Amino acid sequence: MKITLTKIKHNEHFSDETDLFCATICVDRKPVLLVENDGHGTPNKYDSIDGTINVESMLNFINAWCVIFMPKIKMPWDNVDGSECWLQPDLDWHIQDLLNAWKRKKYKTK
User: Fold this and answer.
1) Domain map of the chain by residue range?
2) Rounded distance, CA 46 to CA 2, Å?
3) pLDDT tens digits along 25-35
4) pTM metric for this prediction
């Protein structure tokens, strides 16, 4: 399964604590959900494109895929007990990765 973003609209100037953006989430090139963030530190908001997809069910499905197939990421800090800290990416993390890649390409940064 491949998760991608299309129809990305991003406003760099009004992004505050998070990116102000909206986009279409595609699963295997099929548009399934809309995602947006107001850019003020709030979580992403998800909505159905045409009302035919149950948003909660689709989010549960995609997040389950993320847990199963996306590798954990080692964080650059340790847990309080001194053990290594690992993060399991979820859909929000993946969306941000996709958005960051899009921004690097659009704004020509590394």
Assistant:
1) 3-107
2) 18
3) 999 999 999 99
4) 0.87
